[in-house]
Amino acid sequence: MPVYKDKIPVFLLLLLGTLLLSWAAFYNGFPLIYSDTSTYLESGFVLETPLDRPITYGLLMRIFSLNGLLVWGIVFAQTFILVSLIYLTIRSVSTTRKNAVRNAAMAILVLAFVSGLPWLSAELIADIFTPICLLSFYLVMFAKHTAKMKVLLYFILLISLACHISNVMIVLAITVCVILISFIRKRKGKLVLVARRDLILVPLFCILALSTMGSSISKSRHVFMMGHLVETGILTAYLDDHCATENISLCKYRDRIPPGAETFIWNSDGDSVLILTGGWMGSKEEYSKIISETFSTGKYLEMHLAAAVTGTLRQLYTIRVGEGMGMYDTTMMVSQRLKKYFPGEYPQYVNSRQSHDEMAAFPIADPLNKIATALALLVIVFWFFVGRNKSTYKVQLSALSLTLIAAYILNCAICATLATVANRFGARLSWMAILLAVLLIADMLSAYKESRDPR
């Protein structure tokens, strides 16, 4: 009985935390919808890998919804997984289970009311699996667990890696850094905090995840990269240099090329340059040739490097909660697929706030998130330069802090360099600064109490 008694507070925390971080869906009257939701739904229920993304999240939507029986199951399942990882992360830097439950409850309350996390966890889109991926990575790499929990965390890591190629790239980059740091510490005779097994398994999991999305990468890589060339102006420079001497189909439509990647890739009207030059598959040969030449020619390579730096810096502060929360009427594909795969719950969607274009008019969420994030960054800076010296768990907290900071910077760099600068790319991870700040404040308060009461 005492064992179960100890677990009751944790179970209640996870249950209440899941409900609390799902409040945006409750407020809406239905899980939040994004335009990409349509493709995920179709891929999961038709069992076909889409042109532009892996099938993994679509399959998870089907599983979590019990094969289309309960759309709310998707929100509750993905939020429960995230809340569980938040708790385990906090447990890894807490002295006791009681302290972990208390700090986790405080963190969840703060995240629920001042961060953009509830808007992310309530949305039917794969972005939620980026933070799930990073927290599970931290836990398998730096925290101690039972064998069963370790296996479960590895399974979550593998699934979340396979949800988005950027997840793989972020984790691989951090793992390489950890391997280098571990090698240097070992050469200097210092303690190595990471097990060799994990340094081998994580890259293998990344390779395995990449193998599951090979089809979608092959179909879409040239289109997304071309969108990047459009937005950065590299394509314009290339066409200026080559249209007079080479037969390039894009040259015929130079005046129609939009300035932004989003419009170039997703415009489905008759004047879409992508469609006019062959569409997703017909354009592959020409687009791939242009992309390859821009990376092998000094002039364009310099433009790539400059765009990567400026894009990364822009993405660091490009964050807005609720992007894409506009109305999707009954004629749009996402609405039609919701009706097709969730016929019993479709009336809820029709009556939801989002379907009446009321969710975009929730003005306080974004300013609160920006203010809380700014304050969190001040706390993080203060802890590193002042408070960390008094920290009881400075090694574990340092590992967590550096992992999350590196992940956010890499997330910005990868998205800005290989895709585009977008509010949702920043919003999917910016709330982690608030989570980290709560933990650092708790750590500094604990250190202060210890200094006042040395017993």
Structure description:
It is built from 23 helices and no strands. The chain has 455 residues and is mainly α. The chain is globular and about 80 Å long.
What is the typical, i.e. mean, pLDDT?
90
Say how many strands there are: 0
Q: Return Rg in Å.
A: 23 Å
User: Strand-residue fraction?
Assistant: under 5%
Helix content: over 70%
Q: Report the principal-axis shape.
A: globular
Which secondary-structure class do the elements indicate? mainly alpha
Spell out the helices and strands N to C.
HHHHHHHHHHHHHHHHHHHHHHH
Describe the main β-sheet briefly: none
Number of helices: 23
Report the end-to-end length measured between terminal Cα atoms. Answer: 31 Å
Number of domains: 2
| Uncertain stretches of 5 or more adjacent residues | none
Brief account:
This protein is mainly alpha-helical and 455 residues long. It is built from 23 helices and no strands.
Secondary structure: elements and pairs:
Elements: H1 2-20, H2 23-28, H3 37-46, H4 56-64, H5 72-92, H6 97-114, H7 117-121, H8 129-142, H9 147-161, H10 165-187, H11 196-212, H12 214-232, H13 234-242, H14 261-266, H15 273-276, H16 279-282, H17 284-296, H18 298-317, H19 333-341, H20 346-350, H21 365-385, H22 394-418, H23 423-452
Helix pairs in contact: 1-5, 1-6, 3-4, 3-19, 4-5, 5-6, 5-8, 6-23, 8-9, 8-10, 8-22, 9-11, 10-11, 10-22, 12-17, 17-18, 18-22, 21-23, 22-23
